[in-house]
Design brief:
With 133 residues, the chain is an all-alpha fold. The protein contains six helices and no strands. 80% of the residues lie in helices and 0% in strands. α1 packs across α2. It starts with a helix and ends with a helix. The mean pLDDT is 84.
Length: 133
């Protein structure tokens, strides 16, 4: 999402609220209910920051995201829409890099847990074979 927002900021002279609502109507993000909530608040006349925070709270109740992830999305809105075009693009790049780092950490954690579960499964299978013999 951050990459798409950055691209639209770079090439369109469109307010950030309109960019986010356009993403909501695109095929790539139509299933991301957070954007729908956000657009609903924006269309009701709320500011971008307030809309973002209210949509995030509403999305949090319907989402399986951890509090850390919700906080990550909340941090993004602190500067988004409040700076010039270059500042917004830098904000998108910064959060994209943070998301990539988090993804890499989670993949490493997944590999570690996967190895552990394979080892436990093998030992359990061996134990069952010994018991039933």
């Amino acid at each position: 999402m951050f990459r798409e927002i950055e691209a639209r900021i770079s090439f369109a002279l469109t307010p950030t609220g309109e960019i986010l609502c356009a993403l909501n109507h695109s095929d790539n993000f139509s299933s991301f209910s957070f954007l729908k909530f956000l657009c609903d608040y924006l269309e009701a006349g709320e500011s971008l920051h307030d809309s973002w925070q209210k949509a995030l709270k509403k999305y949090q109740t319907a989402s399986a995201l951890a509090k850390q992830d919700i906080l990550f999305l909340s941090e993004f809105s602190a500067l988004f829409g409040n700076t010039d075009k270059e500042g917004q693009k830098q904000n998108c790049r910064f959060f994209l890099e943070k998301a990539k780092e988090k993804r890499m950490r989670l993949l490493e954690e997944l590999k570690t847990k996967q190895k552990l579960s394979y080892a436990l499964g093998a030992f359990l299978g061996l134990f069952c074979c010994i018991i039933f013999m």
